[in-house]
Predict the 3D structure of the following.
Amino acid sequence: MTDVLVPGLPATLVEAPLPAAAPAAARRTTPRRLGRFLVRRPGLVLSVVLVLLVVVAAFAPGLFTAQDPLVGEPADNFAAPGAAHWFGTDELGRDVFSRVVHGAALSLKATLVAVGVAFVVGGLLGLVAGFVGRWVEDLIMRVVDVLLSIPALFLSLALVTALGYGTVEVAVAVGVASVAGFARVMRAEVLRVRTAVYVEAARSSGVRWYGVLARHVLPNALGPVLVLATLELATAVLAVSSLSFLGYGAAPPAPEWGNLISAGRNYLGNAWWLTTLPGLVLAGTVLAINRIARALDGEWAAAR
Amino acid sequence: MGGSATGRYVLRRLAQAVVVLWAAYTVSFLVLDALPGDPVTAMASAGMDSGAVDQEQLDQLRAEYGYDDPMLVRYLDHLGSAATGDLGDSVATGRPVVDTIAQALPPTLQLAGAALALAVLLGGGLALVATYSRRRWLRQVLLSLPGLGVSVPTFWVGLVLVQVLSFQLRLFPAFGNSGPSSLVLPAVTLAIPTGALVAQVLAKSLLTALDEPYVQTARAKGAGRARVHLSHALRNASLPALTVVGLLAGQLLANSVVVETVFSRDGLGRVTAGAVGSQDLPLVQGVVVLGALVFVLVNLAVDLVYPLLDRRIVVAGGRRSLA
Amino acid sequence: MSAPLLSIRDLSVSYTTRTGPVPAVRGVDLDVAPGEVVALVGESGSGKSTTAHAVVGLLPRGGRVDGGEIRFGAHDLATAGDRELRAVRGARIGLVPQDPTVSLNPTKRIGAQVAEVLRVHGLAGRREAAARVVELLERAGLSDPAVRARQYPHELSGGMRQRVLIAIAIAAGPELLIADEPTSALDVTVQRRILDHLDTLTRELGTAVLLVTHDLGVAADRAQRIAVMSGGRIVEVGPTEQVLSDPRDPYTRRLLAAAPSLAVARRSPAAVAPALREADPLVEVEGLGKDYPLPRGSGPRVLHAVRDVSFTVERGRTLALVGESGSGKSTTARMVLRLTEPTTGRIRFDGEDVTAARGADLRRLRRRAQLVYQNPYASLDPRFSIEEVVTEPLRAFGIGDRASRAARARELLDRVSLPATVLGRQPAELSGGQRQRVAIARALALSPELVVCDEPVSALDVSVQAQVLELLAELQEDTGVSYLFISHDLAVVRQVAHTVVVMRGGEVVESGTTEALFTSPTHDYTRELLAAIPGATAPTAGGTR
């Protein structure tokens, strides 16, 4: 498993060195090359567009819908999807599309916080472990091994129990549960680069350790970790929405993608749109992020 | 590798497992105990008449549960009991944590076992067919399925299945633990993300193995496609897939929290969800330790299977290593 | 010549890439008569392997036969279907692959892998096959064949695995054997023994061989006819003596001139200015040793990778450390540069003891002694521009400002005969030979007194090898730099070294001046190494022998 970066695969599996940003990856990116690359991949373009739409929705929901996500028209409840309400209305007559659009803000925020925590903490731990070595590495990696042996969702649940409910709490819980994976990948990358011949070549021509770290190790090790971060965005969207579905996220009536779907559970028989449509948006977002991660991971480098 | 060497290896691994369990216990203790919020306050505010508990009663409760001791004392105290198999009592129900878990575990193991079998069968089958097929379109369609499988939220898949197969077609019961037919939908739901991962990893390593020079050697002998695929590539490719299965066993258990909630099934998942809901720290801690135990045991089993598949891997010296 | 066994006519093969099909073989004609050994010689990318693989229909992914025919008996293998090809593969055409270390299935026993040929073609039942396997392994020259049959590939050495692969190839008594660089992954002495054995075996069995090799020396020793390939075409084909002594195609001539194994000290090491010879030696190594602790278990506690090695590198001269894999030559060189810590012994650089140098002393050593690596693909940071690569040592020692460093980079590239236009490029955009030139330029940036060259040409094609060796010699003449030259290839060493140290199993077995060592070796191992140089006895265009 030398070049495993399968979308959705827990970071724990990615212990083998990731594909060295293949030699060709160093080639410069010209707009023309990028254009040709994208034209051949309509699915990727669609994914980028979808993710951009979600980001815009998070920051400016007003661009997509003028309807209030929190206040509905009780007379209008359980309206099926149609021109007036694209995703239909819920039991209180609230517009589901508007709730999904407004929910993007909380869900995106939680995702970014989660990945940020995992990336910064895990990345630093891995960097220190890989670069310093000796007992420091042993100690850090032992702790990482223990964290990896606890199923991520259980670890998140324990953290939620301790921290309490809420969007940020859930995000931190998900982030901490992914720290170990990042630490492991970062360390593997640092080790790979640190033992690369060109690093020794730099060392033997007199470059000092901080020069080696800043100019060779970090730039070459970071690529695969960033790819992992992209994949982790997808995983985090799923994990955050799962916890929100279980009811540990934002308190209703604030809309989050997870609790929206959870709320629709009670009306499975008569209002399919309450669960199905928000779920499609959620799945589409995750799929799009995974597709982008795959493009970043080698496909782009290999295509040139 | 003699029998006694394997025996020593297993013993050493079991010793390591105990260390991991201790560490998992410690981590969960730190998470649950060191962070703000304590179960007594939670219990008081959630369980009893809201806000009507006075400070004196709280202190009394704290003393009763030992929450007024310094953290280190509590830790050593709890660890001592944990070593004898006593993980404390549930704050919510007052029953021992171990009993609560033991009672909730069987239906969940049934569910996770069924899901694991389905995941391996479907995921492995998909990978085999996809890499074996000569039809380009079939390959591409099959190989894109796992990517879809890992992207759809488990709880949503469950709800959609209930909507279509229970409410519309009335094929399976939507909720509960009544008989084998009630196991079908939850097991399928739980199997999808796991099976997708198995398929992804197996397909990828099959494709890698098929490009290896030893496969070329086999072809040069005049061996047919099926023989090359099954007898040469699959055996080598199954190692990474086996690793994935080992790592996913714990996740299956954890995902049962979501699936059992969706299908209102009784089991460990529901108990866990409830424990988190009522901030039942001892019970949550018990579940976390159980998760680590399952992980450690399954991975020990996987490590013992490795050498049977690939002789280069010897189980000696404490760690798996390539000779 | 009797009717050919294999007859290739106008064969064209291309590979599908993202930018469209790329032709690999263009209109090749080639015959192999029954029992004949034909060598297909060429550099990487010449299409030689592709041609050989097309014969058995085992082209790598994306490869496609565009036209032509491959007649083999009643079959046209170029258009044959899978079923027809399967009947021929293994049974009538055997393949000996390139790298024995990865060509056997790691999860199956040797015996089962050999028996598979017999079973697939219905030549033996289960029990019968087991007996035949032992016989075949013995034929292939393996000792204890019954034991080997029960072992797994990783328990055998590279040479033994290649013998297993030969047993597989001859198992069904094929009429043709395709040997694709069968020994290039092995040490020279092993290579010689295996090729000798293959020779005897095929002669006994009357099997024809299509031998694919990059080494004209190997071809000269083994083949009755040689076909030279370049750019997907056969540029010359003829009887071995004729091709070697009277090459008609300019490319063949260039290849012959570059082939180190056929060149009899055509290029001799640079003469040394007398003034330099008088001076003190640059590097003195005394009793150098390196132990590695072995994992606990049965057997010895430590591995003596290097043991009691002593030598002296004179100023302006080249000392070669020669040995096969595992001889400790690279470890020794790395200890001299203090990239690996010695366990015992002493290293003096310009009279100063640097065995335990630290801090400023070590940096002074780094400045005066540089290293050129074997693999120019791995030794340059893929993210750096060539200018950054070449000026990195200058930056590290804070020499000059940006402008003067850029000027120095241009000057250095000029020294290694690269145009200044490559300064802005990245390593991936350069060829292997160009990258090695860049690596040499980097090593020269600080004007060091010692450059350690660790197999500097073994990853390069022969014609490029010759150019790089030439460059190293010129630089020595101009700058008076000393080289510590690590190589497994005695033919290369002969062209560059003034003195040679032969190592085996971590110890020095013999050392002396190049002439003395090549003309009158005293140690058996040296003699064996010399005899293993392929092509040593072949007639060449120069006719010196």
Q: What stands out?
A: Chain B touches chain A through 65 residues (CB under 8 Å).
